[in-house]
Write a structure and sequence with these properties.
Layout (H helix, E strand, L loop, with lengths): L3 E9 L1 H12 L20 E8 L4 H12 L5 E12 L5 E7 L3 H14 L20 H8 L1 H5 L8 E5 L9 E14 L3 E10 L3
Antiparallel strand pairs: 1-2, 1-6, 3-4, 3-6, 4-5, 6-7
Helix pairs in contact: 2-3
């Protein structure tokens, strides 16, 4: 049975998206090729719940996400710095970090609680969108999300790309209103919006 690798996410508004893209463009990748091309192909996002989705369960997941979205007000975040970590291939992955948000944690917990019976840890390379060879890190991240990256291990951020950020970071605030379900590509990038709803004003 085929499973689609999906991510329930917050998507930024147009102005915030452009700010994130401009920061992404400042990453120094040397002579390498940027592995995560943040723009229209790879949408900047904050991950809230990942897993493998069977086609027959898609409408149920859309309904759950829509219902939760109607209960949550717009979320305000203060972005404070950029962090780096190395993946198993030794690539530097940059993340845009923000101050802790009770509202964001509450939204994450609601989604985890209500989607854990639908999203399963059974994705493989064929579950992802795009033509690239999918890294094992990407597959593992999706399959391990509920056990390793959720609830007390929840670490929300926006992945910026590979390389290094050497400029001075200018802090900024942003309001998130868009709750979406996306089909994932390599590096757990959001490639296609499968469903979208608005948070409550």
């Amino acid at each position: 049975m085929h499973y689609k690798a999906i991510d329930i996410v917050l998507l930024p508004e147009v102005e915030t998206k452009q700010t994130i893209i401009e920061i992404h463009k400042k990453l120094d990748i040397g002579k390498e090729i940027q592995k995560i091309d943040i723009a229209d192909k790879c949408l900047p996002h904050i991950s809230l719940a990942m897993g493998g989705l069977k086609e027959k369960d898609a409408e149920d997941l859309f309904d759950i996400t829509s219902h939760i979205g109607k209960e949550i007000k717009n979320i305000n975040l203060a972005f404070t710095h950029i962090s780096q970590h190395q993946n198993s291939k030794g690539e530097n992955i940059n993340s845009l970090e923000h101050m802790q948000s009770t509202a964001l944690s509450f939204l994450h917990e609601k989604l985890i609680e209500q989607t854990r019976k639908i999203l399963v840890n059974k994705v493989d390379s064929s579950s992802f969108s795009g033509e690239e060879n999918v890294t094992q890190d990407s597959i593992n991240w999706v399959n391990d999300y509920f056990t390793t990256h959720s609830l007390e291990n929840f670490n929300p951020h926006i992945t910026l790309g590979t390389g290094s950020f050497t400029e001075k970071f200018k802090q900024f605030n942003a309001t998130f209103k868009r709750l979406a379900i996306c089909h994932l590509g390599n590096y757990c990038t959001c490639r296609t919006i499968l469903f979208e709803t608005q948070l409550a004003n």
